[in-house]
Structure prediction request, 297 residues.
Amino acid sequence: MPRRVTVDAAQVRALLSEQFPEWAGLPVRPVAESGWDNRTFRIGDDMVARLPSAAEYALAVDKEQRWLPLLAPRLPVPVPVPLAKGRPGAGYPFEWSVYRWLDGEPASADRISDPVRFALDLAGFLAALRTIDTAGGPQPGKHNWFRGATLRTYDAQTERALTALDDDIDTGAAREIWKIALDSPWGGTDRWFHGDFAPGNLLLDGGGLAAVIDFGTCGVGDPSCDLAIAWTSLTADGRRAFRERLPVDDSEWERGRGWALWKALITRARTRDRVDEEAVNARRVLAAILADHSRDR
Prediction:
């Protein structure tokens, strides 16, 4: 696991004072749902500072600074666009970014007004992202934990989770799903992907998709990792609409289900003795994946 650092509002104020004195007088307060990869702080009413929580996550700063201004005009809903790049200072060791604040609340089932419309909007966003020129784009690597590369990167981790869950879920069916995903070929045509297309990074306004944030794991390669959202966050009807809207073949769909399975398995193995929201959600996603596979058979 990355060695994470702590950051507080006083450090952010000191960084602003040192590097961006024009913003030094603005109030700084932590965002309620800050995320794992970055510590996030609101600056005044219109800006947000994102400070990577570990050296591995800091690898994404330059990537976002370079590519988000090019991606943003080509996408159907707002995405973060950097206003400035900060450097280490005030006891904080990494480069960091200031962005324009985007209004909205993180997606959740109870906040989505129309699940099918939401699914279609997500598919439309990914369809638009995939049309953007990939020349010179960031290939899979440590900067995005190898999103866009082969699922075999996570084969050993998945097998450990399956072993740990042997008496907890239908591991025979799960192994079958995983093997199908591993054996489903990718044509090798690079496409842009978000890499962490998950509810916390999807903002709603009035129950509909309003913005997509956190492109730290974005890159170019196999975009099937973004399809995991079909099982993690969509209803059965929404999943069908999502697939029909996107130009994906059966092989890519199977790889997308593999990405969803990997994350659900490792989360379930880590939380199997818990009954909190994360544990309950992992059980729900695994049940959806297994049920979907059963219907396909």
